[in-house]
Amino acid sequence: MRTPEKANASGKGGAHITKRAGRVSGKQKQTFVCGVKHISKLRRELQTAGLGLRDTSGRTQCETLLRILQYLGPRGINTPEGVGCGFYRIATRIQEIEEAGWLIASYRESLIGADGFRHVGIARYSLLGRRVDVDNPQGALDLGAPA
User: Fold this and answer.
1) Between these two residues, 56 and 65, which has the higher pLDDT value?
2) Which of 53, 102, 130, 145 has its CA 20 to 30 A from that of 116?
3) DSSP symbol at 89
């Protein structure tokens, strides 16, 4: 008994990416290529601006990353770019900067990495500014002292 050939929506065998899957001709959103060339160029730009990482201590990384976010503005920095510039555990550094009173936006993007693979949901961070005195709802909760 012969097994039937698999067919896609077009009735032809084999793989076929449909319009519904996102591959349409005409105007498409380009996937960001975050390869070795791009990261090297960013690293050179930051070095020229005096924003190169001096050492790998957590404190130095936080101070430098904050200055880099200020320098880059809305362009921000994503995780592979941060790692390529010498930052380790960039999400932790972002959290520490936020704890110091800064507001940082996190966006998700898809990119082609230095490994040549497509990565989905990579974080891109951009500085929004200093946190204005926002009351912490947890800190403001007064349950009263036990009698």
Assistant:
1) 65
2) 53
3) S
